[in-house]
Amino acid sequence: MSTAASAPAPTASLAWADRLRNLATVMVIGIHVSAPVAHGYAAFDSWFWWAANWWDSACRPSVPLFVMLSGFLLLGKDYPLGDFLQRRFTRVIVPSLAWMVVYNIYNHLASGQPATFAEAGVRMVENKVHYHLWFIYLIVGLYLVYPIMRPWVRTARERDYWYLFALCAMASWGYKILYVFWNISIGIYWEFFCNNLGYFVLGYYLGNKPTLDETGGHGHLSPWPFTRRQLLWVAGGLVVVGTVATAVGTYWASKKYGHEFHPYFYDYLTPNVGLCAAGWFLLAKYTWNRRPLLEVEREFAIASFGIYFVHVLLLDFWSKVGYWQTRYHPAKTIPILTAMITLSSFVAILLVRSLPGGKKIT
After folding, report:
1. How far apart are CA 316 and CA 36, in angstroms?
2. Arithmetic mean of pLDDT, 290-299
3. Rounded distance, CA 208 to CA 28, Å?
């Protein structure tokens, strides 16, 4: 445990977790605003493209941060299996089904697809309703693995965690690097360790591991070899290095491999994005607890799930009335449009939550 003793455990208040959730929500919107330019504009040497590339790169930790927050908040608590599944699936499945119906109707009116109720049902099963709803299927999978991982994190030691992280890194990072850049496949069956399990456990690990100069944490986790101040420098470095690696790596890969946009470094399951997400998580944990949540921050955190659902509709709306990403230079339009969609989505969800039954679908 700690050697010096005095600083209170930073997780005593969870204001930082709500603020980090709010940041991740805005990041998701930022990705969807900047992606059409970053992915679709082929002049990789222009400031026009670089503006979108930097914005998209800075926002890439969004999904890993959501997964890490879920791991931190869930794996540290004991829930009876039946109660956990009932409460969590009710809070996720009910609103998800409601919004899938909304997007099926929206897509049918816009493009005629899905054409039938049967096709709509198949799309819901196959995760093909709308491009941003894939995250729901990820969360459901994490909830299914929670009862298995909860007793493990309670008894695991440092070397157990790092063994798991090493396997997840090899399954998610190493395999992808070999396959994407050298077309080499690994024959080992990595399924359990790939995807987002590593982020899920990492959130619990980072959220409970103490620094050298603080009390708290968990006895089975040894302190960082850093003081709190030193760890903040490390965390800031991870954010900077991860963001720069994402932006520069995307430029390099896009220029080298066919002069077409190359998506590898934008992937959530890459070292650059993972290190950046870990940096943001630690920065939030150690610096965003200094004052209580403002009421607007609290309400935004409560509405974040609904904002995630509705923001794509608002993105399409603002585009149709003339506010699209390339109307002016992306350096101006991307942050402005991100702010407009964030604010209008927040207001829309507040209105929905004020209606009868509105809280159940947001």
Report:
1. 12
2. 93
3. 26
- Lookup: tokens for 64: 């890993």
The pLDDT value given to residue 7:
35
Structure tokens at 55: 């914005």
Kindly report, residue by residue over 39-65, the tens digit of the pLDDT.
988 789 999 999 999 999 999 999 999
139-188 tens-digit pLDDT: 998 998 898 899 999 889 999 999 999 989 988 888 888 888 888 877 77
Over residues 223-248, the mean pLDDT reads 95
3-state helix, strand, coil in the chain (%, to 5): 70, 0, 30
Structure tokens at 81: 């299996």
Ordered by start, the domain boundaries in the chain are 10-361
Question: Is the pLDDT assigned to residue 213 strictly greater than 90?
Answer: no
Q: Which residue has the tokens 């082929």?
A: 42
Distance CA 257, CA 250 (A): 10
Phi-psi domain of 114 (left: phi exceeds 0; alpha: psi -120 through 50; beta: other)? beta
d(CA 235, CA 242): 10
CA distance 146 to 105: 33
Cβ contact 15:292 at 8 Å: yes
3-state secondary structure of 291: coil
CA–CA distance, 34 with 222 (Å, rounded to integer): 41
Q: Which tokens is 115 given?
A: 């054409």
